[in-house]
């Protein structure tokens, strides 16, 4: 599939596809539409969920600082 066809299927412009390929920023909704058209959205979401779970289970990542109340000097 070329840039033009992908853009048409994802409902975006060829310029947006080109920006993505060059590592430039694009709208997150557009990125998700492109991933969906490339049939990699589900594996992408699964990977994010697995990584999120790993981070949450890591005891080093848990908040260890005691929050202290700050005075309201205003």
TrEMBL record:
Residues 3-44 form the HTH cro/C1-type domain. Pfam families: HTH_3. Gene3D superfamilies: lambda repressor-like DNA-binding domains (1.10.260.40). It comes from the Bacteria. This is Helix-turn-helix transcriptional regulator. It comes from Thalassotalea castellviae.
């Amino acid at each position: 599939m070329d840039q033009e066809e992908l853009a048409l299927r994802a409902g975006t412009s060829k310029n947006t596809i080109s920006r993505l390929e060059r590592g430039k920023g694009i709208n997150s909704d557009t990125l998700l539409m492109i991933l969906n058209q490339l049939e990699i959205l589900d594996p992408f979401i699964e990977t994010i969920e697995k990584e999120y779970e790993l981070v949450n289970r890591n005891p080093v990542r848990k908040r260890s600082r005691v929050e202290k109340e700050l005075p309201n000097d205003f």
